[in-house]
Amino acid sequence: MTTIDDLMRRAAKMIAEDPEQARKFGGIYKFALDGEGGRTFIVDFTDDPRVTDGDGKAQCTISMTASDFIDVVEGRAGPRSLFFKGRLSISGDWRLAMRMRKLNKVMGGGHD
Fold it and tell me: What are the SCP2 domain coordinates in residue numbering (predicted)?
């Protein structure tokens, strides 16, 4: 079963392999994941793209359960449907949140 650690490593590897492509996403995202296996981490797509474990400043914070996050990234759930069901919340820059769909496709998912 995929874990949040697995997804963080996958994202870090993708960023390291093509930092220029990562910068095209722009912005700093915080993922605040609760429930079993939950944690908070930052994905920075600015000048020095990277994944950082733990809390920190971000332009867009996306909150949901760890299991819902895994389902989104792996294409079993869509962020839009989770949002309308009240299972995903967004604070900060909504324009960055709208890019989550494209980010989701890059990390392996594909739902809206």
Answer: 16-103
Determine the residue type at 90: I
Domain ranges of the chain: 4-104
CA 80 – CA 11 distance, rounded (Å): 21
17: Cβ–Cβ under 8 A, 6 or more apart, which residues? none
pTM for the structure as a whole: 0.88
- Whether domain 4-104 has CATH 3.40.640.10: the reply is no
Positive or negative torsion for Cα 84, 88, 89, 90: negative
Concatenate the DSSP letters of all residues of 53-66 into one string. ES----SEEEEEEH
CA distance 15 to 32: 20
Residues in the chain: 112
Distances (CA, A) of 4 to 34, 47, 56, 85: 11, 24, 18, 22
